[in-house]
Design goal:
Main location: membrane
Shape: globular
InterPro entries: ARM-like, ARM-type_fold, Clathrin/coatomer_adapt-like_N, Clathrin_app_Ig-like_sf, Coatomer/calthrin_app_sub_C, Coatomer_g_Cpla, Coatomer_gsu, Coatomer_gsu_app_Ig-like_dom
Number of helices: 17
Largest sheet: 6 strands, antiparallel
Number of domains: 3
Keywords: Cytoplasm, Cytoplasmic vesicle, ER-Golgi transport, Golgi apparatus, Membrane, Protein transport, Repeat, Transport
Strand content: 15-25%
Number of strands: 17
Protein name: Coatomer subunit gamma-1
Radius of gyration: 27 Å
Membrane topology: Peripheral membrane protein
């Protein structure tokens, strides 16, 4: 193990201690910052005299920064101390990835502190002293060519530049807005095109003094898949249309961008765009579009993250189901494997009987299922129309097929066969199958942006749940929404908690939920839901009830 590797291991051990002893965060954070300061002094001494002084470099500094950020996230009372340490660190930080990541954190958490103005000097110093990748956050831009301008100010990147961080302070603090506008006007004179473009854009938005605009264009970016957005824009330019480009046709990002890890190697210059691979959902979209019976369903909204096993793995037939949700339909994809070497199955379908208002439209069979060769069949179902809120449903499933005996040695199949069927496990469809998780970095801004036109509120008693932690976990899993602002973490020794959830309902409608929990003998839950349409709100409340 090298010296650098051993130093990183020490930092990781400190991180583990922070999680085990959260009340010791002040001592541990001061120790971490002293490690950063000593490493900087060691590098300076090494450059002047001895090349033998240990130098942690990027990996070492990144480990320390990760640890400090982890402490800030787990202990709200340590936020201001941690941010102050990170501000001092970026004053002499030579790594673009770390500088932009800290600037992003300052823009996200700084405006919520008791004295947000003290961070402005550190951020603006980066505008004056750093290169364009730090000033504008260009190193994270995923699009190129004519599509870059569309996404430059709307996509939420983890490595946000100094100009964007300044704008976030102005969007959340009215008292600081005049000073922020002055600083952004200076940025308009920058040498770099992107810095000027971003500053001009933010000036225009902030000048309107509208919370909805601030939330949509500064505080919370797009949640779509960047590769999907690029492909959709390219397709739109290849097929001219009088209709404007519809952003709802772009698949959502399967992993919130703000949760993605930063790169493990230092970046000092803008990276060239790379050819991106198709996402899992885009692959499913192409596969389903190739089936004639499944054409004309519209854009695929969501596919279940993991297939559901409908049989035991040791049985003669292994069946796994993936649920695909479209705007008005659901497609159930059954991946089937025949484990009997003396049989071949033909015309395999899975017959489904719903308990609610779903309607089965058609079955697409797997024509041939030889021994140990996977095959796929589909069932197309229409979503409820008479009662659109009845999205929860249990389907009883029966696999029907024609059996033809075959020689296990030669594989020769008999000409004659017989009809047979095989009972499968029931399949559940829940509200989570109709909602995609999205990250809202600033929940309050998103809440104000949606507005209260379709806000509804109800109170429920969770009689079988005895702890707040269990209640939070069950709610997040049941609704399939993303917990915002680390609200899925319940503080110790508390009998009240507020859970903030964000998602997108099929059709592209934002849905936000604020759940206030009170623990007495059981858990009482007050659910407030907002959306741009009434139906998603009704579905949330109906499913919880």
């Amino acid at each position: 193990m090298t010296v650098i590797e051993s130093m990183v291991v020490v930092v990781q051990a400190i991180s583990a201690l922070c999680q085990k002893y959260p009340r010791k965060h002040a001592v541990l954070m001061n120790f971490l910052f002293s490690m950063l300061r000593e490493e900087a002094l060691a590098r300076a001494a090494s450059a002047l005299s001895s090349p033998l002084v240990p130098q942690g470099g990027f990996e070492y500094k990144r480990a320390i920064v990760d640890c400090i950020i982890c402490i800030i996230e787990e202990n709200t009372e340590s936020k201001e101390t941690g941010l102050s340490h990170l501000c001092e660190f970026i004053e002499d930080c030579e790594f673009t990835v770390l500088a932009t990541r800290i600037l992003h954190l300052l823009g996200q958490e700084g405006p919520k502190t008791n004295n947000p103005s003290k961070y402005i000097r550190f951020i603006y110093n980066r505008v004056v002293l750093e290169h364009e990748e730090v000033r504008a956050g260009r190193g994270c831009l995923a699009l190129d060519g004519p599509f870059r301008a569309l996404a430059v100010n709307r996509v939420c990147f983890i490595n946000t530049g100094a100009v964007s961080a300044l704008a976030k302070f102005g969007a959340q603090n009215e008292e600081m807005l005049p000073s922020i506008l002055v600083l952004l006007k200076r940025c308009v004179m920058d040498d770099d095109n992107e810095v000027r473009d971003r500053a001009t854009f933010y000036l225009s938005v902030l000048a309107q003094k509208q919370k909805a605009l601030n939330a949509g264009y500064i505080l919370n970016g797009l949640t779509v898949s960047i590769p999907g957005l690029e492909r959709a824009l390219q397709q739109y330019t290849l097929e001219p249309s009088e209709k404007p480009f519809d952003l709802k046709s772009v698949p959502l990002a399967t992993t919130p961008m703000a949760e993605q890890r930063t790169e493990s190697t230092p970046i000092t210059a803008a990276k060239q765009p790379e050819k991106v691979a198709a996402t899992r959902q885009e692959i499913f979209q192409e596969q389903l579009a190739a089936v004639p019976e499944l054409q004309g369903l519209g854009s695929l909204f969501k596919s279940s993250p993991e297939p559901v096993a409908l049989t035991e793995s040791e049985t003669e037939y292994v069946i796994r189901c993936t649920k695909h949700t479209f705007p008005e339909h659901m497609v159930f994809q059954f991946d089937c494997t025949n484990t009997l070497n003396d049989q071949t199955l033909e015309n395999v379908t899975v017959q489904m009987e719903p308990t609610e208002a779903y309607e089965v439209l058609c079955y697409v069979p797997a024509r041939n299922l030889p021994y140990n060769q996977p095959g796929t069949c589909y069932t197309l179902v229409a979503l409820p129309k008479e009662d659109p809120t009845a999205v929860g449903c249990t389907f009883s499933c029966m696999m029907k097929f024609t059996v033809k005996d075959c020689d296990p040695t030669t594989g020769e199949t008999d000409d004659e066969g017989y009809e047979d069927e095989y009972v499968l496990e029931d399949l559940e469809v829940t509200v989570a199958d109709h909602i995609q998780k999205v990250m809202k970095l600033n929940f309050e801004a998103a809440w104000d942006e949606v507005g209260d036109e379709f806000e509804k509120e109800e109170t429920f008693t969770l009689s079988t749940i005895k702890t707040l932690e269990e209640a939070v976990g069950n709610i997040v899993k049941f609704l399939g929404m993303h917990p915002c602002e680390r609200s899925d973490k319940v503080p110790d020794n508390k009998n009240t908690h507020t859970l903030l959830l964000a998602g997108v309902f099929r059709g592209g409608h934002d849905i936000l939920v604020r759940s206030r929990l009170l623990l007495l003998d059981t858990v009482t839950m007050q659910v407030t839901a907002r959306s741009s349409e009434e139906l998603p709100v009704d579905i949330i409340l109906a499913s919880v009830g």
